Amino acid sequence: MAILTKDEAKKILDKVLSYSKADEMSASLSGGRLGNIRYARNAVSTSGESDNLSLSVMAVFGKRSGTATINEFDDASLEKTVRRAEEIARLAPENPEYMPMLGPQTYLAANPYAESTAKMTPDFRAQATFDSLDPCRKKNLTAAGYMEDSTRFTAIANTKGLSAYNRETSVEFSVTVRTADGLGSGYATRDVTDVSKLSTKEATEIAMQKAQASASARALEPGKYTVILEPAALLANVDASLMAAMMNSFDARSADEGRSFLSKKGGGTRLGEKLFDERVTIYSDPTNPEVPASPFGGGGGGGGQGRFNGGSDGRPQEKVTWIEKGVVKNLSYSRYWADKKGVKAIPAPANFIMEGGTQSLADMIKSTEKGILVTRFWYIRPVDPQTLLYTGLTRDGTFYIENGQIKFPVKNFRFNESPVIMLNNLEALGKPVRMGGNLIPPMKIRDFTFTSLSDAV
Amino acid sequence: MNRRDFNQLLGMGTTGILLPSLPAFSRPVTPEILLEPGLDVATKKRLADAAMNAAKSKGATYTDVRVGRYLNQFVVTREDKVQNIVNTESYGVGVRVIADGCWGFAAVVDAKSEADTAKAAEKAVAIAKANAKLMKQPVQLAPQKGYGEVSWKAPITKNAFEVPIQEKVDLLMSVNSAALKNGANFVNSILFMVNEQKYFASTDGTYADQDIHRIWPLFTVTAIDPKTGKFETRQSLSAPVGMGYEYLQSNPADKVTGITTRYNKGYDMLEDVTAAAKQARAKHTAKSVEAGKYDLVLDPSHLWLTIHESVGHPLELDRVLGYEANFAGTSFATLDKWQAKNFNYGSKQVNLVADKTQVGSLGAVGYDDEGVKTKKWDLVKDGTLVNYQAIRDQVHIIGEKESQGCCYADSWSSVQFQRMANVSLEAGKTPLSVQDMIKDVKKGIYIIGDGSFSIDQQRYNFQFGGQLYYEIKDGQIAGMLKDVAYQSNTQEFWNSCVAVCDERDYRLGGSFFDGKGQPPQSSAVSHGSSTTRFNGVNVINTARKI
């Protein structure tokens, strides 16, 4: 497997940089193994495993930059790649926003790597799939699911003396269970760094319960409802989601330019303003043991998308508070924009953690007089970027709650809602759960706007 | 699933420029590499034969081999700056086999020798045999005759890679400058060009060498009103097309004039951005729509996406059967509805066809990725559901003897599976112009361009927005509207279709990045229509205060 140690990687990177004739050069070596298994109709449909190791070299002359990549590592190939990057750089137009490379940096000690995940085999994947399929087959339910595991490393270095190394693992699992008559459907998803903490059986059993309980749903009138949104409804690792959409919109430049929900009337940003309920506190921290993340990288954002940016500029990921007691505390910056504004260039986060309470989902249901429990949202797309208005639908388990109890399944709804409005209509927060590499609590929200009904199951 | 990456790229209110997804294993190259011919046909045949022989000797009963070279170029700018110029190449070989009745697939990057492809073939057979233990039923592959050594080339007149980068940068800079001069505060513009050089070989005896080209020029302009602190955007009315650089040669015959100019087979980017800047500014003072029922008049630049989501996806047989249940979802258009032969998908005016041969479309090829010659077929005939989109291992389920030829993989490194053909609404048979259509509408909205989109996992309930909305009152266009989105149900919507303009108004729209599968693969697909009228559709107002 192509997981190089820190020393092995550094040896290659140092050699690459020694060939440089450019003003500045950076090199990034990354590799690892990606495995997956997919099933549907209670049988495996595809599975695969691939190894990759690749080197990317960026050469810079003045404000012109060029990148070349290679997956061969003999001296001649390395030198050829350096020359190609330089050739591409000379042909490139000037980038007026180019920022000189960073020198040596200090990084937090994060550990997003687990040996158990690195050791996964095709047999292990098949067994995990069997553990999910078998209970469904026995109950005459139909399962479709997907598990993807990744073990990878990234090492970066540049001619200014910056050097960084990280290795990480992750496993994402999701399953949709449907009743034989197609009238019920349930979903569960898990993501872990350490695969020994994943039970596909446990997750599948929840999806099975939801499938059986959601059959023969009744129609309720669309309108404003109190809702309990499970973590998978707030954040998804496979598609757009309300919380990721909001956290991905914390870019300072868009706000300064007047084209963000964080832009202020008359110019400037809403940094320092209280925009949310005072119980809303969101921060990022690559060293959090429940959601460890890479300690460097300038890319990515919430929602598990692009969490690891191999071609990053090497900025350290630190603990950053984005929202504290409802007040916007920080925005993320490109190095160019931060330089222009004379502020610290805080990169977009590698994870985010929303503080919650101690209540379980069951406690939250128990304390609800009338409301709707939402397992998951689907096909969430922006409607108005000005207000962060999004539309989407409930899916795979939507239930009516009355007097603290789940009464009956309800037909799916389409919603039109903004996470900003949602986080002002907060009733309660539960205990945070890991979702897409982030921690998010289930939320009880009043006046959530459902605009139409769907017949979809 | 559609175009999410690109909406981010175009910055729906953000300036973050993300690179669009590239084929796997893409490496940066100099622009000259994009004009190099790649391997000759004889070499590709040798690589393929080696794989097929190796697979057979290990016990495969069927093998296909795809030797793929995928070239991409994109030029990304904002205002007066070039942000990125990227040229990439990805080359490798994918081998798919049936052994012990089960599929197996393996791929090799930068395959140089017959030994490389033979090794991949052996790995594919080993995977097939391992997976056969978990199989419920063996693969039933529809027979396919071999075509021998054949080739297909997209009928382009100007390879976009032959146009110097400087000329492309100059075009985008003049586009950006026109936007800023005409009232925009910000503009992002992009030229995206693709060439897929695909060689397919199978043990049925087909060796197909194909050359496919795609291009997509696009922009977003943003106009800010500092007094109100609001911003409005307008995206380009271009379509991604299966053409060369000739798409950017403006031709008066390809312009559709009216309330705003739209484009057919030639796109005038400079003219469109000039209009866009003014329209983004005008949106600030447009009337906010009053929610209620309206008759909708939908331009092809808008309707393509509604066709894509509410017809293209639900009529994919793998979705109907449940193979996509965990991600993209299943379909309301179940087999019993098709078997009944009387399911009213839409009104009598509604004729929807799948077509992998349409000239200039994104989906056009000579042969699909399992060696089936492409064709055109009916999906909905005079409003009735008559067929699905299916490939070789599925067609027996719908009683067809041969595949419909809509199998596709987005890279040599991805396994091919059923993907959407170009799915289009046929033009009306009786002469009808857009002007005459609008004349009859008492209370309506005319929508141009695609915008927000969302549909449920069985494709019943959907919501769409657009780029430009005009109020129609008593047969006349009464002015611009904003904050418009319509919600409907697929069957109800297509049954509310009362008129389709004739073929003079027929145009293609499309998506460069239709996503499907786990791990996800993207595909490019076009959807044609003429302007179409739908009666009594529910419109909501999307304005909010935060």
From TrEMBL, chain A:
<dbReference type="InterPro" id="IPR045570">
    <property type="entry name" value="Metalloprtase-TldD/E_cen_dom"/>
</dbReference>
<dbReference type="InterPro" id="IPR035068">
    <property type="entry name" value="TldD/PmbA_N"/>
</dbReference>
<feature type="compositionally biased region" description="Gly residues">
    <location>
        <begin position="296"/>
        <end position="313"/>
    </location>
</feature>
<dbReference type="InterPro" id="IPR036059">
    <property type="entry name" value="TldD/PmbA_sf"/>
</dbReference>
<comment type="similarity">
    <text>Belongs to the peptidase U62 family.</text>
</comment>
<dbReference type="Pfam" id="PF19290">
    <property type="entry name" value="PmbA_TldD_2nd"/>
</dbReference>
<dbReference type="GO" id="GO:0006508">
    <property type="term" value="P:proteolysis"/>
</dbReference>
<feature type="domain" description="Metalloprotease TldD/E C-terminal">
    <location>
        <begin position="222"/>
        <end position="451"/>
    </location>
</feature>
<dbReference type="Pfam" id="PF19289">
    <property type="entry name" value="PmbA_TldD_3rd"/>
</dbReference>
<feature type="domain" description="Metalloprotease TldD/E N-terminal">
    <location>
        <begin position="32"/>
        <end position="89"/>
    </location>
</feature>
<dbReference type="InterPro" id="IPR002510">
    <property type="entry name" value="Metalloprtase-TldD/E_N"/>
</dbReference>
<dbReference type="InterPro" id="IPR045569">
    <property type="entry name" value="Metalloprtase-TldD/E_C"/>
</dbReference>
<feature type="region of interest" description="Disordered">
    <location>
        <begin position="284"/>
        <end position="316"/>
    </location>
</feature>
<protein>
    <submittedName>
        <fullName>TldD/PmbA family protein</fullName>
    </submittedName>
</protein>
<dbReference type="Pfam" id="PF01523">
    <property type="entry name" value="PmbA_TldD_1st"/>
</dbReference>
<feature type="domain" description="Metalloprotease TldD/E central">
    <location>
        <begin position="146"/>
        <end position="207"/>
    </location>
</feature>
<dbReference type="GO" id="GO:0008237">
    <property type="term" value="F:metallopeptidase activity"/>
</dbReference>
UniProtKB/TrEMBL annotation, chain B:
<dbReference type="InterPro" id="IPR036059">
    <property type="entry name" value="TldD/PmbA_sf"/>
</dbReference>
<dbReference type="Pfam" id="PF01523">
    <property type="entry name" value="PmbA_TldD_1st"/>
</dbReference>
<feature type="domain" description="Metalloprotease TldD/E N-terminal">
    <location>
        <begin position="64"/>
        <end position="128"/>
    </location>
</feature>
<dbReference type="InterPro" id="IPR002510">
    <property type="entry name" value="Metalloprtase-TldD/E_N"/>
</dbReference>
<feature type="domain" description="Metalloprotease TldD/E C-terminal">
    <location>
        <begin position="292"/>
        <end position="539"/>
    </location>
</feature>
<keyword id="KW-0645">Protease</keyword>
<dbReference type="GO" id="GO:0008237">
    <property type="term" value="F:metallopeptidase activity"/>
</dbReference>
<dbReference type="InterPro" id="IPR045569">
    <property type="entry name" value="Metalloprtase-TldD/E_C"/>
</dbReference>
<dbReference type="GO" id="GO:0006508">
    <property type="term" value="P:proteolysis"/>
</dbReference>
<keyword id="KW-0378">Hydrolase</keyword>
<dbReference type="GO" id="GO:0005829">
    <property type="term" value="C:cytosol"/>
</dbReference>
<feature type="domain" description="Metalloprotease TldD/E central">
    <location>
        <begin position="161"/>
        <end position="247"/>
    </location>
</feature>
<comment type="similarity">
    <text>Belongs to the peptidase U62 family.</text>
</comment>
<dbReference type="Pfam" id="PF19290">
    <property type="entry name" value="PmbA_TldD_2nd"/>
</dbReference>
<dbReference type="Pfam" id="PF19289">
    <property type="entry name" value="PmbA_TldD_3rd"/>
</dbReference>
<dbReference type="InterPro" id="IPR035068">
    <property type="entry name" value="TldD/PmbA_N"/>
</dbReference>
<dbReference type="InterPro" id="IPR045570">
    <property type="entry name" value="Metalloprtase-TldD/E_cen_dom"/>
</dbReference>
<keyword id="KW-0482">Metalloprotease</keyword>
<protein>
    <submittedName>
        <fullName>TldD/PmbA family protein</fullName>
    </submittedName>
</protein>
<dbReference type="InterPro" id="IPR051463">
    <property type="entry name" value="Peptidase_U62_metallo"/>
</dbReference>
